[in-house]
Amino acid sequence: MRLLITVARRIHKRPLYTPTSCLSSAASCSGASKNSGLQFRDNQLVCGSTGELVQSLRGQVEVRTEFISEEEEGALMKELEPGLRKKRYEFDHWDDAIHGYRETERAQWGAVCEGVIDRLRAVAFSEGSPLLGPVHVLDLDKAGYIKPHIDSVKFCGSTIAGLSLLSDSVMRLVREDEPAEWLNLFLPRRSVYILRDQARYKFTHEILKDDESIFSGQRVPRHRRISVICRNLPV
Ligand code: OGA
Ligand code: MN
């Protein structure tokens, strides 16, 4: 348990790009949502600096809305909340890529949650792809956020799949060697996002803090948010 959390921490070591404001002049969009208050059409969940960029990352960046039901979200919370509640949110590690978080890992799930995890893995990973056994659970306080980073290539493979519980949020991807190239992803509560290949290796990803949480010109209030993240192993 302890070792795995250390491994998970090492994922977050590279703040590379600090945005001064949220970009909202989206050139192109793709995806689907009708979840909370915000309504975006099918082709509007992924926006980027240019249409060509959005197009070139199609297949490497995916958002699936309403991936789980409210009941499944409730079942996940029921399993996760008692353990999380025992920990304190961590705010003061200035060099951490995550601010205002607590985290855990889970290898064993009850039947409903196991069904969700199996479904998540089935859509994200090809059959036989060796997976990181325990699932990473990250609980961001309302004031918490994730700074730009690239997950450790030593510990994690080509694909990252994350389920968002409790809150909508905005994920930003910025090309590491060309900061003018960016994508914003609208992640509605109960959606899943998948990052693969170039999107995972060449772009930093981050979850915007509440006061910068704007997608396509619309404010996306960030509440407490829990992500349930599955990864594969490097080959
Ligand atoms: C991470 C990360 C994103 C999320 O833990 O490395 O980028 O959805 N998390 O919480
Ligand atoms: Mn990450």
Automatic annotation (TrEMBL):
Record-level Gene Ontology MF annotations: dioxygenase activity; metal ion binding
Cofactor(s) the protein needs: Fe(2+)
Family recorded in the similarity comment: Belongs to the alkB family.
Name of the encoding gene: LOC120034136
Subcellular location: Mitochondrion matrix
Function statement: Required to induce programmed necrosis in response to DNA damage caused by cytotoxic alkylating agents. Acts by triggering the collapse of mitochondrial membrane potential and loss of mitochondrial function that leads to energy depletion and cell death. ALKBH7-mediated necrosis is probably required to prevent the accumulation of cells with DNA damage. Does not display DNA demethylase activity. Involved in fatty acid metabolism.
Descriptive protein name: Alpha-ketoglutarate-dependent dioxygenase alkB homolog 7, mitochondrial
Source organism of this protein record: Salvelinus namaycush (Lake trout)
Gene Ontology terms: biological process: DNA damage response; fatty acid metabolic process; programmed cell death
Record has Mitochondrion as a keyword: yes
The entry's keywords: Dioxygenase, Iron, Metal-binding, Mitochondrion, Necrosis, Oxidoreductase, Transit peptide
Gene Ontology CC terms: mitochondrial matrix
Domain of life: Eukaryota
Transmembrane portions of the chain: none
